[in-house]
Amino acid sequence: MTPERRRPPDAALLAAVLAMLLLPALAALEVTPVGGFRMFTEPVRYRLTLFEERRDGTAYQLPVRALLPHATRDARRVLGGSDAFRLGETQARLVAARLDALAELACRQDPRRARVHVRIEIQDGAGAPLDDRSLERACE
User: Fold this and answer.
1) Of 87, 86, 88, 43, whose CA–CA distance to 64 is shortest?
2) Exposure pattern of 29-68 as b/e (b: 16+ CB <10 Å)?
3) Are the beta carbons of 126 and 100 closer than 8 angstroms?
4) pLDDT tens digits, residue range 87-102?
5) Considering the entire predicted model, what is its pTM?
């Protein structure tokens, strides 16, 4: 046989077959979300709310879209449209884990801001709350 037509090693074939069989089984047991169908059967929605307090004492709701020009391309995909409830379990987890980075971005964007309050609400597809996190940060 020529090198181009050589069969993959048995260990590689075994690993591929096990991955195809084990990942869905582990997902069904909720050991891992990889390979699962939960995104179709148990949708998760999230909404991001931002408030700013300016140095003169006035407070405003800050639209999420105001941060988009200052965010990375990937962050814009996750944050865009999150002023209203948006579907995405993975995106919700990403945003919830980085509330501090969002607050820092909002602080750096406008020197008039004295404080920023960031909140994420996460719900199941029926609207029942799953998580509600807030973070308040003083701007320097």
Assistant:
1) 86
2) eeeeeeebeeeeeeebbbbbbbbbbeeeeeeeebebeebe
3) no
4) 998 899 999 999 999 9
5) 0.70
